[in-house]
Amino acid sequence: MIHLQNVSKKFGQRLAVDDLTLLVPAGEIFGLLGHNGAGKSTAIGMMLGQVWPTAGDVKICGHDIAGSRKLALQKVGAIFEAPVFYDYLSGWRNLEILSHYTARCSPARIREVIAWVGLSGREKGAVRTYSHGMRARLALAQALLPQPELLILDEPGDGLDPEGIHEMRQTILRLRQELGLTILLSSHLLSEMELLCTRIAVMNQGRKVFEGAMAETRRTRGWVRLRTSNFAQAAALLREAGLIEQDRGEKFILPAGGIGTDQIVAHLVARQQAVFEIAPEEETLENFYLSLMRK
Amino acid sequence: MFYYQLRNELWKLFGKKRTYIGFGICLLAEAINILLFRYAHNPRRYLVRHLELMGYSSDKYITNLTMATSVLVPVAFVLLPLYVALVGGDLMAKEAEDGTLRMILARPISRLRLVTIKWLAGAIFSILLALVLGGFGILFASFFFPSGGLFALLPLDGLFSIFNEAEGWQHYAAATLALSANAITIMGLAWMFSCCNVKPAAATILALSVVLTSRVIQEIPYFHDWQAWFITYHLSLWMRTFQQPVPLGDIAQSLSILLGFNFTFFIIGSSIFQMRDIKS
Could you tell me the pTM of the whole model? Predict the structure, then answer.
């Protein structure tokens, strides 16, 4: 659905995006992570034809965004952080105005989308009277009106309270399950990204430093969490027997090559060491992200 | 789709309260001017003295048409440029500042079409403001002054003209229409600046600065022979509709030059907007 090939963007002398290649397959919830100024919004701007790349090609839904913008964006919806509207107009009028930039939209379709996002009954009120959560729903409604196949969400959780974030998460999952949308999600909320995304790309100072399935970020790298009556003694016994390579933090051991946790448990139990817990260490997205940033 | 997009642009423009500030202030200024002419001694005496110096009866020419024309001059020189520049400066820059431009440009609309509908909405506003000014001026003047001939007095431009009532109406209508060309051009200038990466106020101020600078230089005696080179000379074409005989060739030339200016502003503005990166 999205294909960026060796895309770069310079603002004056500053390189905002450096040789970015990104592929977002259909049906994924794809997370774009990075610190402020990492180049996420610039990359999204280039996907939507709002920012002109200095080099490289951007294809959306199989169409080149620079040459065939109209075709490329025909089935795309987008939501940006802190949704803004024409506050003095009603929600309904805002939807009409924004949808007409794509194609004419029937009142029945507008009603259907308003019902889907849960704004029925409030659509005739001026947007200035809407809460932040209602604005977020209206933003979703405007993105859904052209019946998109791809939804681009740039920091959609910004400014939402915990309930709003929960609602946003459920909505994104519904969008994928009920409407089968491909979703590109850029956010700072790592815990949310961990719960939602099937694939992620991490950007640091304009460069992509990781792209892969979410499962890859949770890989254990071999460390095992071990809880015993005496960790230091257990670790010494295991090291003496050549069953582990290292231990760290009174909690983790790194088994030697080819050694399974069953062998470790059997060895410790045979030496009267009580084993309360043994499990592979699962890395959080936050740890994974921070380790990438430190590199 | 073009019709719906233009209609939506007008909804946006006329849905904003600040759009009506221009109408409100201009109409208020006209009303105050007419009331001053009606009830204050000095302004009226000024007109009467000039009429009598030229050998005309003040009774016949202190009329609704004369008063409407007299109040149109200050409004057209000061307030009209201010409010059309305000709206023109808002058209693109306010959307960029508010963030709605990013929402629009996430849609498959071309930038050229977007700037075109914005410019057209601004042009419709400018025409409406000029027509409402002309219409309200004569309406309000008719409440306080009798109908009759038209005495057009513009001392700065050396214009003293007398028309009978039928001719007066024609000249007044022509001036109001020509004022639309003035309003559209100033709006287009502000719109052009608004297409750049600037704040709405900066676009308005830049446009007004160009108009005022041109006017100031044009009025310096040294540049008098070159005045046809200044945009403000052509913006004043509406005043030439009060000359006797009407310099049709001169007016047509000014209209063509204003058309050229508008075209240039449009090309520059749309090219800048086309090349710009739209960021949050």
Answer: 0.86
